[in-house]
Amino acid sequence: MKRIVTKEDYIQSLKDLHHVVYYNGKRVEDVTEHPGLRPHINSAALTYELALRPEHEDLMTATSHLTGRKINRFTHIHQSVDDLIKKVQMLRLIAHETGSCFQRCVGFDALNATYMTTYDVDEKYKTDYFERFKKFLIQVQDSNVMVVGGMTDPKGDRSLPPSKQADPDLFTHVVERKPDGIVIRGAKAHMTGGVNSHEILLMPTQAMREEDKDYALICALPLNAPGVVLIFGRQTNEERKFEEGTDAGNPYGLVGGEALIIFDNVFVPWERVFLCGEYDMAGILVERFATLHRQNYGGCKGGVSDILVGATALAAEYQGTAGASHVKEKLAEMIHLAETIYSGSVACSAMGYKTPSGAYYPDPLLANTTKHNVTRHIYEISRLAHDIAGGIVATMPFHGDLQSSEVGRYVKKYLAGVKGIPVEDRMKILRLIENMSGGTALVESMHGAGSPQTQKVMYGRLGNLEQKKRWAKKIVGIN
Amino acid sequence: MAAINKKRIGIKYCGGCNPYYERVDLVQKVHSLLKNRFLFLGHDQENLDGLILVSGCPRACASKNLDQTEILLRSVIEENEFENLIEWLTTLDGSGKI
Questions:
Q1: ipTM
Q2: Catalytic position from the list A48, A75, A105, A238
Q3: Backbone angles phi, psi at A352, to 5 degrees
Q4: Side-chain half-sphere of B13: how many Cα atoms within 13 Å?
Q5: Does pLDDT of A161 surpass 70?
Q6: B11-66 tens-digit pLDDT
Q7: Beta strand A258-269 with A228-232: parallel, antiparallel or unpaired?
Q8: Structure pTM?
Q9: Strand partners for B76
Q10: Which of residues 68-87 of B touch A (CB under 8 A)?
Q11: Chain A residue with Cα closest to B18
């Protein structure tokens, strides 16, 4: 594929992809022209555009350790603690531009998790997955394609392992091994940025046992491969994306734009297979991907929260409540919560370390703590935004009413706030708050990168409770 | 021909994760004021006479990992350094005046 450099290159590359995408039961011929998808594409496009700006290149670009060439950081393998920190800083800066998810971190984390794990698999089993993967990685770095990280399977009956499901396809698996490759079947759910990515890097969704070895699979394939079907997920208020004016809210969308991606007997050549049957390595891959992805959330959500804090402060100014002491106190609390989640992301990066592969990895306990805080703090930040902005967030008239020759004068008269502030500006900010602080955006902060309970499970494993008990005993003299 | 005598000034930014001010606006202000006397270029250009390191906060990330050690450097970490920056440039220029 021709190297994607600019936003325009990216959009053209999606037009050229001709992948099979469905939106509300209808086939989408050109994802870049579909109003339900375009905001997410515009958001992801900034990962290309910002990399070209001198004022962001230090964070948005890196030097490939494989080729020595300058690459987009989203295709980089972390070579130091500084790289881990720069990842988090980059996510915050992009969120300042979009106020929404820009999707590309999922593939970034999948690349890093696969890099370090294929190295370990080869060490244990004398396979050649790592060398295969490095060749794929160089292709990704040189072409600058967007890769979606495909981890979450539909999972069917959660009480049963993959091989015991009534329908074996509820976890993605190998159905046929051929001399030149494998055939896979299954699906991946909640695929952020799926419809506007070029490639998917599939990974197992959980630790596997021997009977599940056909499900222990890492492989990459283009999203226009025969047999791949993408169904875009419905979001709250998604019809706003079809509108213009104040009703549009955030032009970069609510969250990332998720899709259910189906693999209906898809062929994958061996050179793109990076794990196939080594079931005991699935668990470490999952843990690494989860840690790398949970590392992110204080960066991107911290940046998104900065926008929500700013919008809320403006709403207060526009309606004359900015001087109230309780409003100042609540804004301070919002800032505290946003910086708390950012601190977690920086901390787990600063405490990161080198894996045997040479790639750097964030501290897993701190990364899980960060994401766990996000599942709580984003709700509280949003609650405070609603508190300050007022009920008008939920009851404001349509943009059409503002523009109406019949009732527009009433909207302008009765939605007026502080003198001199245009009513349309007030409505834009209130609609942005509504957009960013409800529905899908909240659920995403809860379940993206894993539900809260998955982080609690990690506390049990990594929290070192026995050592803590020893310290307590020592202080009071218990032998 | 006038460009031959202009001092060549490189601009190196930090990444801009959470800047306290608009870094690009500050550089554009400098450029507007002194574009007739200086060539403002990317930090990776050759034969620079000076390098302005524009960071968004006191962490001064633009000043880290510098390759250029032979040229005059000026670090900026806040908006109100504008006047001092102009003074530094005009001193570099030798005129001492805007």
A1: 0.89
A2: A105
A3: -70, 170
A4: 27
A5: yes
A6: 999 999 999 999 999 999 999 999 999 999 999 898 999 999 999 999 999 999 88
A7: antiparallel
A8: 0.95
A9: B54
A10: none
A11: A93
